[in-house]
Design brief:
It contains ten helices and ten strands. It is of the alpha/beta class and about 260 residues long. Helix 3 packs across helix 4.
């Protein structure tokens, strides 16, 4: 399928989705959000895709922010609609995908770009990456989940400082904060993501989906994460993957998971 603002490729059970607006530093506009939604949905529904990698084109930016020109003249009603629709189509959508999704942060990840990276299940950064939520410098706040996910990842105090100063941190500070899992060179960024993805593909996709659901439950109001864990744990026992995994273990061989 052809997209206007992204590229999508598939190899070795990995779908790589690249935001491709280099002249705009890969800024998110409505069309790009729609393209990302469709590509992610397609990959998540593809049984051959075991891992999704999301990155930006070029060497300067993952996503440098949202396309401000699209909403500079909005009123409060339109602003609320923009945030709600964006979260439904992309940010909350990614977080709840059953396919593990890795953000390969290859440069600036600001505003909506950092919110996109934080929506992914974990993040790997190149050593030239810079991250921040500068929205208050424009008279607005993060609206795509930034005020919620950043404190979850790095703690309330650090998130509060970063958001209300509109500051940026580099890749090593992001690593120290726990915002990213690994830092590597620009050249090794995608290979490292693919190496980690390869480890993931050897495991049960059914169990991974259940684990994602259980982990996410801990961060949702009104939901008991332990109860979700118990439910998902029990459900695993009725899967073909569980039968294959336990049989392979007892037979001292590698499991060949059917993904069912």
């Amino acid at each position: 399928m052809n997209y206007e603002n992204i590229l999508s490729s598939f190899q070795n059970n990995i779908t790589t989705i690249t935001i491709n607006r280099p002249t705009k530093l890969n800024a998110l506009n409505k069309a790009t959000i729609k393209d990302l939604h469709e590509a992610l949905k397609r990959a998540d529904n593809d049984k051959n895709t075991k891992v999704i990698i999301v990155t930006g084109s070029g060497e300067k930016a993952f996503v440098a922010g949202a396309d401000i020109s699209e909403f500079a003249n909005f009123d409060s009603k339109k602003g609320k609609k923009l945030a709600k629709k964006g979260q439904e189509l992309l940010f909350s959508f990614i977080e709840n995908l059953s396919t593990p999704t890795i953000a390969a942060v290859n440069g600036f990840a600001l505003g909506g770009g950092l919110e996109l990276a934080m929506s992914c299940h974990f993040r790997i950064a190149s050593d030239n990456a810079k991250m921040g939520l500068p929205e208050v410098s424009l008279g607005v706040i993060p609206g795509y989940g930034g005020t919620q996910r950043l404190p979850q990842l790095i703690g309330k105090g650090r998130a509060m400082e970063l958001i209300i100063t509109a500051g940026m941190i580099d890749a090593n500070q992001a690593l120290n904060y726990g915002l990213v899992n690994h830092v590597t060179t620009q050249a090794e960024l995608i290979p490292l993501c693919e190496k980690l993805a390869g480890k993931i593909t050897r495991n049960s996709s059914v169990a991974i989906s259940a684990a994602i659901k259980a982990i996410n439950a801990n961060f949702k109001d009104g939901i008991n994460g332990f109860e979700v864990e118990v439910s998902e744990f029990g459900s695993c026992f009725d899967t073909e993957d569980f039968a294959e995994g336990t049989t392979a273990f007892l037979e001292k061989r590698k499991a060949d998971f059917p993904g069912k």
